[in-house]
């Protein structure tokens, strides 16, 4: 069976909208051994630092998922110090999304 490739684009700053995506990402990795990617982008970069989603974000790393966030938006929202204590890589979001498209990932946004 071919391994699923699923990318989660977290674009909302509403924890109630984001949490289902983070839970699904972790479960796809743990229960189905899917190739899972997670990118915090737009207002979504605000959800990855503290608050109600803290445990869900930590759970991604525990499941073997390396979450990423848009470095430009982290800077724009002045969140660099918040991200320094998180297991989240900062990168150029455009290049990441382009790689998803080139490599056949199904993209889900939350």
Task: Give a short overview.
The chain is α/β, with parallel strands linked by helices and 110 residues long.
Any chance you could write out the topology, listing elements then pairs?
Blueprint (H helix, E strand, L loop, with lengths): L4 E6 L4 H18 L2 E6 L13 H9 L5 E3 H6 L3 H4 L5 E3 L1 H10 L3 E4 L1
Parallel strand pairs: 1-2, 1-5, 2-3, 3-4
Helix pairs in contact: 1-2
Global outline: globular
Low-confidence stretches: none
* Fourth CATH level, the homologous superfamily: DsrEFH-like
At the first level of CATH, what is the class? Alpha Beta
The oligomeric status of these chains comes to single chain
Radius of gyration: 13 Å
Give the distance, in angstroms, between the N- and C-terminal Cα atoms: 27 Å
From the 3D structure, determine the CATH topology: Hypothetical Protein Ychn, Chain: A
- Write out the strand line-up for the largest beta sheet, numbering strands in chain order: 4-3-2-1-5
Strand content: 15-25%
Give an overview in words.
- This protein has 110 residues and is an alpha/beta fold.
- It has one domain: Hypothetical Protein Ychn, Chain: A (3-Layer(aba) Sandwich), CATH 3.40.1260.
- The chain contains five helices and five strands; from the N terminus they run βαβαβααβαβ.
- A five-stranded parallel sheet has the order 4-3-2-1-5, sandwiched between helices.
- It is globular.
Q: Characteristics of this structure?
A:
alpha/beta; Hypothetical Protein Ychn, Chain: A; 5 strands
């Amino acid at each position: 069976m071919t391994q699923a490739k699923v990318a989660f684009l977290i674009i909302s700053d509403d924890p109630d909208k984001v949490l289902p995506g983070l839970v699904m990402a972790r479960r796809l990795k743990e229960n189905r051994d899917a190739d899972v990617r997670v990118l915090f982008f737009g207002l979504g970069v605000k959800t990855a630092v503290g608050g109600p989603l803290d445990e869900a974000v930590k759970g991604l790393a525990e499941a073997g998922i390396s979450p990423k966030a848009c470095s430009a938006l982290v800077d724009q929202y002045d969140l660099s110090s918040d991200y320094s204590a998180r297991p989240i890589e900062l990168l150029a979001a455009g290049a990441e999304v382009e790689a998803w498209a080139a490599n056949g990932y199904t993209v889900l946004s939350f």
